[in-house]
Write a structure and sequence with these properties.
With about 180 residues, this protein is of the alpha+beta class. It is built from 6 helices and 8 strands, in the order ββααααβββαβαββ. The relative contact order is 0.14.
């Protein structure tokens, strides 16, 4: 499965991504350390990244969690990661989490990627609700949710605790699979 937009493509994580994910994490340490500390600590060197990728492939295959990469089509440079996580198949619900390379911030790549992956998740994967949970001060991430028609639902009190910080209230946004009206 490859999803494309402009000069970029979205793919499920695969074994050849380990080095690229390691490079991405090291280059974006400051951007990842607050909201992606586990991803960062699991990708501090190529060996750890290989283990990380193998685990993520297994989780993808078992439909527990889906990790996608966003790469430049021509150069194959990894510019972003998108997780579809916290999958609850009974509720048909999942949550997006995403990170963009500092060289590509502000270009709308995550918004476009979330748009494409939302359509894919709601049309092809069997999900009916997708969530984005963000801190209100993370304006770019709030904008990703709003630009993709995710609706604010509520504030999650003490919803996330960054490493070495106090708990933060987080904002919950949701997008629902459109219902089909078959009335005549």
């Amino acid at each position: 499965m490859t999803l494309t937009f402009e000069n970029f493509e979205i793919n499920p994580v695969h074994v050849g991504d380990a080095w690229k994910i390691c490079d991405f994490c090291i280059a974006n340490t400051d951007r990842l350390k607050r909201y992606f500390p586990k991803t960062l600590e699991q990708n501090l060197n190529p060996t750890l990244s290989q283990i990380f990728v193998e685990k993520k492939i297994k989780r993808f295959q078992s439909k527990e969690e889906f990790l996608f990469t966003i790469k430049e089509s021509e150069t194959r440079k990894l510019v972003g990661l998108v997780y579809l996580k916290e999958i609850d198949w009974r509720k048909k619900q999942g949550e997006f989490a995403y990170a963009i390379d500092y060289n590509f911030k502000g270009e709308g790549l995550i918004s476009k990627g979330i748009s494409i992956l939302s359509q894919h998740a709601l049309s092809n994967m069997g999900l009916e609700t997708i969530q984005i949970i963000v801190h209100k001060d993370n304006v770019p991430s709030v904008n990703v949710a709003l630009q993709n028609n995710f609706a604010w639902q509520k504030t999650l009190k003490q919803g996330y605790t960054p490493p070495g910080e106090n708990s933060l209230d987080m904002e919950l946004y949701e997008l629902y699979k459109p219902s089909i009206d078959i009335s005549f």
